[in-house]
Amino acid sequence: MQLTNEQAERLVEQYGDLLLRVAWSWTGSAADAQDVCQTVLLRLLTAGKTFGSPEAERAWLIRVAVNECKNLHKSAFRRHRADLDEAQAVAVHMPEESGVLDAVRKLPPKHAAAIFLRYYEGYGVGEIARMMGVKPALVSTWLARGREKLKTMLGGDLDGTLSEADG
User: Fold this and answer.
1) Handedness of CA 149, 151, 153, 156 (dihedral sign)
2) ∠ CA(114), CA(166), CA(106), 5° rounding?
C-alpha cells in the first residue's frame, strides 16, 4: 500500500518531533537524530504497514527509532570517527534546554532513553519496556540508576523534576 502525499505529511507532522527527541536522547547529536528520524519515517512510508490504533503506530515508530539508534552506535563509522564540536546553529527544535536535560544527555544511552521516555514523554515503565524490547524490571533499573547518576551530576538536586514514582 503506497501512502499519499497527505498521509506522508501527516506522519511527519505528527511524529517528526517525537522521533527527533527520542533519537537525540540516544545519540546526543542533532545530526544523528535527524538521520535516524528520516530513516524511521522512510521505513514506515515504504513498509506500507497499517496499525490498529494511533498508540500502536506511535509505539512501532519509537521501537524502530530505538533500534536505528542502536544500529548507529554499532556501526563501524561511529566507532572510528573523531568527535567534533557540533555547529551551534543547527536548526532543529529540541526540548527546552535545562541543566537536567543536559545531564540526561550525558547518561549512558539506555538510561537517557528510559528517563526521556518516562519523564519527558510520559510513558509508563511497561510501555517503555515494550518499546525497547526489554523486561519492565530492567527499565525500572535503568530509571533508578539514571536518577542516581543525575543526582550525582547535579549535586543531589533534581529540583523536583524527576519523581521517584515510576508506576
Assistant:
1) negative
2) 30
